[in-house]
Design goal:
Number of strands: 0
Largest sheet: none
Structural class: mainly alpha
Strand content: under 5%
Radius of gyration: 19 Å
Length: 104
């Protein structure tokens, strides 16, 4: 006869994992930099100065960092799964938009 395993419940005081917070700190500004760059290039009718490329490069680095911290946050038991998924989704959106803008 197989022994039944008792369900173990773990309660955490933290709402979000620290890695998820770091991922949000990098992911949200990256998205804002992308939006600023797109809106600025539309306003000046495509004649973008050099600093827009630097802003998009910084946004790409922040998006990669956010993705790495989002993936690391899955190893942490603290925090909810929803925030961990949201950080990965935000960073993937950042990366996809930057890659699409690069090829346009």
């Amino acid at each position: 006869m197989a022994l039944k395993r008792k369900k173990v419940y773990k309660f955490s005081d933290e709402i979000m994992a620290v890695d998820s917070i770091i991922s949000f700190i990098f992911g949200i500004p990256s998205l804002l930099c992308i939006l600023f760059s797109v809106i600025y290039s539309v306003v000046i009718k495509g004649k973008t100065p050099e600093f827009i490329g630097y802003i998009l490069l910084a946004a790409f680095v922040m998006a990669i960092t956010a993705l790495i911290f989002g993936l690391i946050s899955y190893k942490n038991q603290d925090g909810g799964v929803l925030t961990k998924r949201a950080t990965i989704i935000i960073s993937m959106i950042d990366i996809i938009v930057i890659v699409v803008l690069f090829y346009i």
